[in-house]
Predict the 3D structure of the following.
Amino acid sequence: MTVFEPLREQLTDAARAFGGDAVAGILTGIVDDVDRALAEEPEIFPVCHHSPASALAMARRLREKRPSVVYLELCEDLAPLLAELRNCRLPVALQAFASRVEGFPAAWAPLSVVAPITEASAEYQAIAYALDTPGVEIVPVDRSTDHVFQWAPRDGDAAAPASEPASGSGSGEGGEPKEALHGDAVGIEIGGLRPGFAELEEHLLRHGKVRHWSEWWDQYVEQPLAGADYATYRQVMVLIGSLFRRLRPPDAERRDRDEDRERYMWTRMREHLAATGADPADCLYVCGAFHAASRVEQFGLAADAEPFEITPRTATSWRYGLIPSSHSAIEAQFGLAPGSVSIAAATWEKAVKRSGVKPFRLSGQAGKAPRGRKTPQVKGGAVQDGPPADRLTGFLSGPPALDGLDEAELLGWCVDIVRLARRNGYLAGTADAIAVFETSVLLAGMRGRACPTPYDFQDAAVTCIEKDRVPGRRDVARLCEILLGGDRIGAVGYDALPPLARDVHDRLQPLGLDLQKRTVQRALLDLHAEPDLLPCSELLWILRRLLPDGAVRPIMGSRELGDRPIQESWDLAIGRHQRALVELGYEGVSVEQVLEQRLRRAAWGPDATVVTALEAVEDAVLYLGGGRFAGELGARAVELLAAERTVDEAPEVVRRIRRLLAHYRAAEPALPRWCQAFVVEGYAHYCTLLPTAFADEAGGVRQVAAMLGFLFGMESLALSLGCDHAQLELAVRQSHPEAPAKVALLWAAKAQLGLMTRDELRARCDELLANPLVVPSFPLYMSGFVQALDPAPALAPLVVEAMSKAFGRLPDAVLLPWLPNLVATLREHARELVPTLVREAARTFPASLPALDAWTPPWESRAAPAASAAPAASGPVADLLAAHPMACDAVAALLGHPVEWDEPAGGDGGGEARGLLERHPAAAEAVAELLARAGAASR
Amino acid sequence: MTDDMLRAPAEVKYAEELDYLESIDDGPKPFSWRLSPRMVRLFVLGSERADGLDREIPQKWFGDRSFVERSIVTLASDRGLLLIGDPGTGKSWLAELLAAAICRNSTLVVQGTAGTTEDHIKYSWNVSMVIAKGQSRESMIPSPIMTAMEAGMIGRFEELTRSTSDVQDALISILSEKYVSIPELDEDNTVFAKPGFSIIATANSRDRGVNDLSSALKRRFNFVRIPVVTNKRSEAEIVRFRTAELLRRHAIELEVPPSLLDVLLQSFADLRAAAASATSDDERLESALSTAEQIGVLEDAILHSQFFGDRTLSSQTLGSSLVGSLARRSPEDLAILNKFWHGVVEPRSRDDDGDGPWRGFLDGGRQAISTLS
């Protein structure tokens, strides 16, 4: 017979009266669980996450019991990180991270697990006690982070476990945190406690007359337990843990693997006890209340069940570190009500002050420590030796003894919230402070509380101050959260940072900025005056390449091939992006190494293309100074080019290799070997693919133009390296395109190669324009010519001519629909095409408006003499030469040219026209008569 | 008594319940309230088993508990209560219930319109009596608000933002000084508000900007914003509750099949989602798609089936009622509904195996759209 026998009987009677056997089973089972857990050794300390009551009870218990070993429900592989908490400002999160996975679906990568630690938590008390007390050991006993993922359901491999409850009762719902401080990590918490299904939670909320789970917990468990003695605390916590455990949907166990975790933890504890020979009476097992009510066969040291078989970890290599966390990030990750963690923190500080308990705190930790009163009044903290007394009956039968606000505190809040509201644009005044106070009291009264809670205060403030619109950025509810402690954001101290992050901080030291701050800071680098800052600038550019947007942002200055930096200015928010920097630290020891790895991975990745490889080369030159590594990447680009079977990326390839060649020609004495190989390989490659690309209907004109651009533009280099021009000529001859644009491109290529003269090309254009059947497709030909500007810039006059003719002669129905296309094409490739075109047009067309009247297009002035085979020279020069032919004769004789003088045009100039007029004078005479008559009339 | 009225006010309709609650109420009552705040809440939100009452009190207003609590507490304080929200969210109904529970009179109502004058808020004169006997308290006609002041009751002001600024400003002195002077009279010329007087005003958030409240008036009101109900379960509850009432009022014996209720709720949820993602007002239905709107659709369908149909509610009728009620602007609303019918209802009816309700809903709606366009 235990002390709980009367309670058990009472509950059985109640169940019989109201529910039946099932209810009786649950109710008596709960009492059994409490009985069992309390009797166990090592002493089980049930906790709940972010619960000041748990933290307070823990601080008290640790001071009384002084255990020598503390077992903690925390992933065992996170143990080495605990000592680093000393260097951080809480809240921070312990993180395990794996960028490359082995043994898990590849789609899950990168894997990340975070376990946030706040100051107002029992686990922090245990950690601080253990680390600062000599001879005390803290042993995390929960499954490793690797097992978190091993046990995650793999129904659909594509779904990453971040969105699934992978960590038992303490799993987060994986929602994106407000500030995304945790990224998309899987959250684990120590002592997660929540009803197992939605209906139960809804029922509790409805009957508790509260809005959300955090408020329920605060009102019905947290506050009544704040001043309770240890026995009551323990019994109540196990009771609630047991209740939620017994009221669960049947498949929850399979999904959560909670029992496996309990087997794991008990097995680890037994192993530790056996290995160290510690006395179980000197140990304390800190676990969630849910696990304290466990019914697994390994529960307890006396159980003779076989140890749980722990599967080996996968080959995934895990990295560990600390990342900053925040109250809002924790709330978002674990689905808590906004502000609840902040309120818990405020409650903790208040409870510490009031109870006089001296909390444990890691020595050397930054931040303000809550202090107890000097005269401690330890309530009910007497050491419980011997059989426990029944504290449950009293707890269950009485109404919750609430720890409300005292009047002075409430008044202070009312005044403060009005002040804060005014600052945020609300028209609030003293009258509102009075109204908030009155409304808080009335609300508390209506909700059956003696004193208002922070939640009542928040409701009252919203009622009285919030009007029809929010004037500023924050509404009243948010202001209340700020008032009640606000969102506290942790920071990882310098010493707890990974080597890479420390290195970054060291190297940015010369800037003279405090980069741990969470504000955006402006760095001005005058590299001309202070060349010492050049390494900082280089580092910042690398960080910009590696960190997410906004961490480092250049305001002035750029980094491109051939640029020499003079002045730069940067917006730095490294403190705000500490997580990103820490996660970078998992990849290597310096940013250069990380960048090198990433470039290597990009170039050798399964989906690497020539462009990615060339991009990597460019990055290597820009950020890592080129050298051997750039050569390796370049060699890889050559390999990829040789293996490539399509020409889709040709334009980009050509653009990049041109840029790199220009850089190497300017900066190096000789072209690197890989560049030469690339040009040779490219020449052969594109020659081979040219006929196919011309014939391929799916391939674009742009691609073919880019190929031709490569072939023509780098021909001289390629030929000097041993390539054969005949290859190109053959390729062009073998090409038989059908699409008009490509046909035009082929003509341009032929003209460039000398396989077709310009006159032929011009004649073909004229033919096209003259043929009414082809006119509608003339714009397509034009598009091809425009693209040809890049590979064959010498054809620019011809293109301008063809375009002018098109504008002049094409009917509107054809011309107008094509114009937008032309403009779009030119805009898209403005960098390559427009300068050539504009320069040529400027040369061709007159520069001023008056000159336009007298202007004839050069092609027409060329065409007119072509029609009359022998142009007749005239004018003073011709007359002079005709009068004194000796000098010309002498020069001609000297050059060996036969001397032939044309008949002078002066006397019977006009030739054919004159003859025609003499034969048919009637028309001319009629015109003359008409003119004479018109002149007479005008007089 | 309720039989003689088309629509009985809440205090008449629930008189029995209110009497019962008053008889068992032992909580502290502010001013001259007939019920304590907790009982008022219980009357509005209904009782639970845990409340330990002898009889069940049904829930009458569906929404977040904290809205009701905040409203009651405001009325117990010095300030007036302004319920603000989209049309059809139950603001007026809540105001009526609160007034009925607190002072057993919810009929002291001023309706705010563009034509509301200061006389409607303060007092006016019986002209013939003034001619006969001169100006006196006898010949004065007090407004509902003044009556509420004299009796220490709750006065209601519907659609506060529809009335012009000068009329609104007349409320300022009433809410802060709590008296009205009658300068026309030489003696007995001030009407003081008795304890228990307060005002519940309602305002439509869609009318914002028509006659904005002055900050002086805003300061004298506590705002409680009532959101559109989006929780499907409570919405179903509301629709069922109000429809049952309507059926009772019209004495119609007609069953509303739960599957049809689902269709209605689902289509409103879909329409709301579409409205939320629309980028301009032309792509949004003019209707606010509130719960009241749903009740309207259902009522329309029920009445149609009762008087022109075979006395059973069919999904066809529901579809045509929905189109008929929501299509207000000729090209825009019809286009939106047509798109909705093609894009949402049609796939749903395809998924419906056998003759589920969506099939008929699709046909009814289509017919209505083609008739209207």
In short: The mean pLDDT of chain B is 86. Residues 126 and 139 of chain B are 5 Å apart (CA to CA).
